[in-house]
Amino acid sequence: MRSLPEADPGVPDIRSPLRYLWWTARRQWPTLLTGIGFATLWWLVQALMPAVLGRGIDAVTAKDSQALLFWAGVLLALGLLQAYTGLMRHRMAVQTWLSAAYRTVQVTARQAARLGATLPKRLSTGEVVSVGNSDIAHIGSSMDILLRGTGSIVAIVTVTVILISTSLPLGLLVLFGVPIMALAVSPLLRPLHRRQRRHRELVGDLSTRASDIVAGLRVLRGIGGEQVFAGRYREESQLVRQAGVGVARVESALEGAQIVLPGLLIAVVTGVGASFAVAGEIPTGQLVSFYLYAVFLIGPLRTLTEAADKLTKGHVAAGRVIRILSIEPEVTGGTASSPGGVLRDSYSGVTLQPCSLTAVAADSPDDAAAIADRLGHYADGDVTFGSANLADLPLAEIRARILVADNSARLFTGRLRDELDVRGGATDAQLREALHAACADDIVEALPDGLDTVVAEAGREFSGGQQQRLRLVRALLADPEVLILVEPTSAVDAHSEARIAGRLAKARAGRTTLICTTSPLVLDRTDHVIYVEDGRVLAEGTHRQLLTSTPAYAATVTRGED
């Protein structure tokens, strides 16, 4: 059932991955700034600890008990402050991660609802699903790392200032060493970015292939095509594996750089500081402080490398989100109004009179589906609804008044009652009437909890015919002003089809209904039949009139049989 809400103003008009990340950060700036403050203080507390510990060692060397107790107390206070700021930093980081990740889910879901029938035409299911599976995690991580990344920069600057004030050569060594290490890592980021993008694309394609196989497994088993599709899936999964290995190679080099480069800086700083201590230029406590600073710098430097990695992944993930957000709906609405009345498609000539049960029989099923799409404003066309052009009406009004129900609609997971009564306003009597009209009473009676039974994903516990009848129940309960049904009985048996055809007129009394079908059982129960050939109306009348007056119609609905 293709009835979707109108565009949500919460969907951002953004065309750049960097701008999307900036928009995500700006939307949660109080939490982000608070987290950055705690992260900065957390790093600063750790940056001060080597200096305090060096002073304590100097107090031990000087046998100054009072100074030793003082610096020990300062070290304890710093430890407690570090614990508190670390706790709050982590709390803010988790909140930031969740906000960024699920805000992406929200805008993606809103855009999917805004696009409606346009989305499956432009993107595969796997591409959309991969946003919720993996991309939201990378976008959340790119926001999370901003906290520690910003604090690590402040910590490196603080340590550099302390070292320069204590020993100019050591301070300059750190001051120039850190940017050199950052530049040494940068050549790895571009190939990492490229390989991650390729890997994401392959994962999306593989997800699409898997969903197609699962959806069509029953058909594949019927025609013996399981092994063929399993082979195709195996080939594509190997491509994903190879792309993943390619990403892992660059990531392993990046991970190794996080260890080797800071290690080299530690060795150099420690070596230079030791030579100063041997020469008597600095006391023992300062030598220990220098060594601890060198070890401490591993954390901020690894954080900067991690930030480069996560921001790169976040950029790639944001690109996939932007790909969805940049799609525009194929059809839009206006601001006009219409009291209703005759619904007419000028291209084909199909005209629906108010409060009538009309059928369209086309020599090609695609022509009937195209007419339904135009009448429901899922495709552009010169369609009038009463005295107004359909395209000039607000899209929300069109979706509320005209419902197109086809066989691509699905049942969702949840209570069957909720899946059938999507608006939540139907009474038990209305539910029973709709079930009776769609000949679906036996389906509900066979369920262990009746209408309270929980439906599995896509209603896979129901057969094709049962799903079709339940979708018809859902369409009838929506009770739109105009209901357009596309092949509503193609998967049910002849006995059920005849009963449904006889009950539809009563269920839709006083409403306009169009059925796109070539079933004689259904056509014989309608008020008016329109025969379409090559996309245009060729003949109109009752089913029996057309059988005798239009040979092409007779050949179409009887499949060439007498």
From TrEMBL:
The keyword Transmembrane applies. The keyword Zinc does not apply. It is a multi-pass membrane protein. InterPro entries: ABC1_TM_dom (IPR011527), ABC1_TM_sf (IPR036640), ABC_transporter-like_ATP-bd (IPR003439), ABC_transporter-like_CS (IPR017871), P-loop_NTPase (IPR027417), Type_1_exporter (IPR039421). It holds the Pfam family ABC_tran. Keywords: ATP-binding, Membrane, Nucleotide-binding, Transmembrane, Transmembrane helix. The chain crosses the membrane at residues 29-48, 68-87, 145-164, 170-189, 259-279, 285-304. One of its GO terms (molecular function) is ATP hydrolysis activity. It is found in: Cell membrane. GO terms for cellular component: plasma membrane. It comes from the Bacteria. Residues 285-559 form the ABC transporter domain. PANTHER family: ATP-BINDING CASSETTE SUB-FAMILY B MEMBER 10, MITOCHONDRIAL, ATP-DEPENDENT PERMEASE MDL1, MITOCHONDRIAL. This is ABC transporter ATP-binding protein. It comes from Nonomuraea mesophila. The lineage of its organism: Bacteria, Bacillati, Actinomycetota, Actinomycetes, Streptosporangiales.
